[in-house]
Specification:
alpha+beta
Length: 621
């Protein structure tokens, strides 16, 4: 009985933990559909939710411009995982429709709604481009003529990707701003074809701007937009917040990236009598560049108050002032907090004008700043510590902070209340009467002598004597001399060794073998990217044979596969690696003189580089 109750309690605890883990998961409701479809072609639209919805809460969009063939079809699924004592529960709820487009053009599927625990969630609208069947198949046409199958496939792959299928745009929030007014720029990738990799060529540069990087690769999401009448999938690659520091026309330089697109084509090689031709997947690199963008920076209006130090935005000022009455030689602090949105990074401490008899220390600054696409927000807090040295009553001018308000297009001055400090005599006896220095126009409020401020100055003649020891023949002299001799001997031995090695031609060739092979592999890679098959395989043969000739000091005339096998076996290279070398040589020879060879350049290149690296590591042991 006790065991049965323990099982029930354990199951209840397990369910509670699962419910807690599920409740902590963020609810997402998304829509998915193809980017482009042809007229008369049916396609599916899926609405996915990662939670259990409220009954009857789903509201489908109107689907204007489409005929609903089937749907809604609901599917549910859930899974529970326990890893390291932590339980996670995931739920998948999907509603599917099958639609048929009515006519060509750009049509947008509206937002769908659903409720989870009383909270309503909506999907983003989905733009879809509907094309005529002839336009959709035009890019799939294969060239005809006397070209070989491989050349025809390569040309067909290049024609699959049009010039406007991959774009990179610099999207700026505004092109005319004031100095120190924020500008948001996002480098956005527009694609109409699938891609497998993005390679940035260089980081963006912003001359004349102060920049704050907002790029977040973890939360970068793919969305859908219509640009120039075509529907694209978009992704923000780089995101920055810029503050212009100069007046005039500033330029945001273009950014270059390489996008490796993926193209699937039908192959006319290796025809199967039953299944017909197969499909081949090609990776096609395309280099794209964003446009050059100009930003017109206007100067701030004239007539700025003296308390203006360059703050631009919308701010508030809070002050915490000390009590109006305190004793002399005691410390106090004024605190000023500037908060709001704008160029908070450049906000300087407002000026606090204190009398000369007040001893003021360095201002302490604390801040909390958050950067987003809309600008920088947060606060900067300034603390002004000081000590009043002389008693009396002092009138302190208000603390002023001036900023330029972007909405009002005018300067706004914020002020604290006026301060009146009554400084009473020091009750601890630390102070005395004020000392007035005649002839300098200083009053007793300006100078106050304290008992511990000045130390007693020793009177009389000094008893100092010069004690010098010459460097010559001292301990440091002999140490420096020995160090110079040892350094000279080491340099002489290293130079002699280098001369002997340079005279040994075979040794130098062996050491340079790997470096020369790497240079030839780079040349082969450039031919591979240019789709120049003959030059690629020729350069690969030069790299492989040249490495063996230089490494093992074998003349080119005597360079054969048998000689290479013997040399590799002498140096401990396995028979498997030796067989890989001969196989790569044979594949390169076959592919160089046989256009119908099935070897892929990327596979040959990767295997050749990996083989040389393995042989080099074995020989160096």
């Amino acid at each position: 009985m006790k065991g049965f109750i323990a099982k029930i309690v354990g199951a209840a605890l397990l369910a509670a933990v699962a419910f807690k883990a599920f409740g902590a998961e963020k609810v997402t409701f998304e829509a998915n559909s193809p980017l482009t479809v042809a007229v008369g072609e049916a396609f599916r639209v899926e609405f996915s939710l990662n939670a259990s919805p409220d009954d009857g809460s789903f509201k489908a969009p109107s689907f204007e411009g489409f005929d609903v063939i089937a749907g809604p079809a609901e599917s549910r699924g859930q899974s529970v995982q326990i890893v390291g004592g932590t339980m996670t529960k995931s739920i998948n709820y999907t509603i599917t429709y099958v639609l048929l487009p009515q006519s060509a053009g750009n049509v947008t599927i509206g937002a769908a709604e659903i409720a989870v625990d009383g909270t309503t969630y909506r999907t983003q609208p989905l733009p879809i481009e509907i094309v005529n069947e002839g336009d959709a198949s035009q890019s799939q046409q294969r060239p005809s003529g006397g070209d070989s199958d491989s050349e025809a496939d390569a040309r067909n792959v290049q024609q699959q990707i049009r010039k406007d299928d991959i774009l990179l745009r610099a999207v700026v929030s505004q092109t005319s701003v004031y100095k120190n007014e924020p500008v948001h720029v996002a480098f956005k990738l527009y694609t109409r074809v699938p891609y497998v990799n993005i390679v940035p060529e260089a980081a963006p540069s912003f001359n004349g701007f102060w920049s704050q990087d907002l790029t977040d690769t973890k939360t970068a999401r793919v969305s859908r937009e219509t640009y120039n009448g075509k529907v694209y999938e978009t992704r923000v690659l780089f995101e920055y917040l810029l503050y212009p520091q100069q007046v005039g026309t500033l330029t945001i330089d273009p950014v270059d990236i390489t996008v490796v697109a993926q193209v699937v084509v039908q192959s006319r090689r290796n025809l199967d009598p039953f299944f017909g031709s197969g499909h081949e997947v090609y990776n096609v690199p395309r280099k794209v560049q964003s446009q050059r963008t100009s930003i017109e920076v206007r100067p701030l209006p004239e007539g700025a108050p003296s308390s203006f130090s360059g703050a631009v935005g919308s701010f508030r000022m809070e002050t915490d002032l000390p009590t109006d009455r305190f004793a002399a030689n005691s410390g106090a602090t004024c605190t000023v907090k500037i908060s709001g949105t704008g160029n908070l990074t450049f906000v300087q401490a407002p000026k606090l004008a204190l009398p000369a008899s007040f001893e003021q220390y360095n201002v302490k600054t604390t801040e909390s700043i958050n950067a987003s696409a809309s600008g920088i927000s947060g606060y900067r807090q300034f603390e002004y510590p000081f000590i009043a040295r002389a008693e009396g009553t002092y009138e302190i001018a208000p603390i002023e902070f001036t900023y330029f308000d972007l909405k009002r297009r005018q300067y706004v001055t914020l002020e604290s209340r006026p301060m009146t400090f009554e400084i009473t005599p020091d009750t601890k006896g630390g102070g005395g009467d004020a000392v007035v220095m005649q002839g300098r126009g200083m009053s007793k409020e300006e100078v106050k002598m304290l008992g511990e401020d000045i130390r007693f100055i020793r009177l009389g003649a000094s008893q100092l004597r010069e004690a010098r020891m010459p460097f010559l023949f001292s301990g440091g002299y002999w140490i420096a001399l020995c160090a110079i001799l040892l350094l000279f001997a080491a340099a002489y031995v290293a130079l002699c060794k280098r001369i002997r090695e340079s005279q040994n031609v075979a040794l130098m060739r062996g050491r340079r073998a790997n470096k020369v092979a790497v240079q030839r592999f780079r040349a082969a890679r450039s031919y591979m990217e240019a789709q120049d098959r003959h030059a690629f395989y020729e350069e690969m043969l030069r790299a492989l044979w040249g490495y063996m000739s230089d490494k093992f000091n074998i003349p080119v005339a005597n360079l054969t596969k048998e000689n290479v096998r013997e040399e590799l076996a002498k140096r401990g290279v396995s028979a498997e690696e030796t067989h890989r070398f001969t196989a790569i040589i044979s594949q390169c020879d076959e592919a160089q003189y046989s256009p119908a060879a099935s070897a892929q350049m990327s596979d040959i290149y990767s295997e050749g580089v990996d083989l040389i690296s393995r042989i080099e590591s074995v020989i160096k042991r």
